[in-house]
Write a structure and sequence with these properties.
The protein is mainly α. It has one domain. About 85% of the residues lie in helices and about 0% in strands. The radius of gyration is 16 Å and the shape is elongated.
C-alpha cells in the first residue's frame, strides 16, 4: 500500500502544478494540493519499512492525511460555488473542478486504505 501512496502523492503534486499553470490568478488551492501530495510522499516513503509496526503507523498517518485532503477538497469546492452564487457571479468551474478532482482522488485513496486495513486485520485473525 505504501507504493500506492506514492502514486497518489505524485498525482496530487501533478494536480497542484497543473492547477498553478491552468488557473491564472487563483493560486491558493494549488499549494494545498502540492502540500498534501508532499506529505503523502514523505510518509509513503517512511511506510516502506520492514518493520510492521512502523509500516502500520505511517499508513495510518497517510490515511488520516487522505481524509483531511478529501474533506478539504470537497468543502472548498462547495464553499467556492456557494460564495460565487451568493455574490451573484458565475463560479469558476475550472477551479471547482480541480478541487473536486482532489476530493475524488482522495476518496479513492481512502477507500483503498480502508480495504487494505481490513484485509490486513482479516489475515492476522484468520
Amino acid at each position: 500500500m505504501a507504493k500506492v501512496t506514492l502514486v497518489f502523492a505524485f498525482l496530487l503534486v501533478s494536480l497542484g502544478v497543473a492547477g498553478y499553470f491552468a488557473l491564472p490568478g487563483a493560486h491558493s488551492m494549488e499549494w494545498v494540493y502540492t502540500a498534501f501530495g508532499l506529505a503523502l510522499g514523505i510518509f509513503g516513503f517512511l511506510a516502506i519499512s520492514p518493520s510492521e509496526s512502523r509500516r502500520k503507523l505511517f499508513m495510518h498517518v497517510n490515511s488520516a492525511i487522505g481524509v483531511i485532503a478529501l474533506l478539504t477538497g470537497a468543502v472548498s469546492a462547495l464553499q467556492s460555488y456557494g460564495h460565487a452564487r451568493a455574490e451573484g457571479i458565475d463560479p469558476d468551474m475550472k477551479a471547482i473542478a480541480y478541487k473536486l478532482v482532489m476530493a475524488c482522488l482522495m476518496l479513492v485513496y481512502v477507500n483503498l486504505c480502508v480495504r487494505s486495513f481490513l484485509n490486513a486485520r482479516r489475515s492476522r485473525e484468520g
